[in-house]
């Protein structure tokens, strides 16, 4: 029963870490896509490739600014998993 609770808590934390790591990139991409879409609608420019370069630039900027904290979250989670695996073996 205790191992099941441990695995469920790890799965819950895994989902939260995944959401926290993915959210900045996805939200920035969504925001830029919305802004470019509004500009395209206002100017009647229907070029499909126009959204690619701004999204790529903003995603790169978000990864530069927030990449260290994202990596820290994933690293701490990985360390916690390995520590709990070692504890389960005993």
Provide an overview of this structure.
With 90 residues, the protein is mostly helical. The protein has one domain. Helices cover 88% and strands 0% of the residues. The radius of gyration is 19 Å and the shape is elongated. The model has no long low-confidence stretch (mean pLDDT 89).
Given the C-alpha coordinates, what overall shape results? elongated
Mean pLDDT comes to 89
Radius of gyration: 19 Å
State the distance separating the first and last CA atoms.
16 Å
- Helix percentage range: over 70%
Give the helices and strands as they follow along the chain: HH
**Oligomeric state:** single chain
Search tags:
90 residues, mainly alpha, 2 helices
List the helices and strands and how they pair.
Elements: H1 2-43, H2 52-88
Helix pairs in contact: 1-2
How is this structure best summarized?
The protein has helices at 2-43, 52-88.
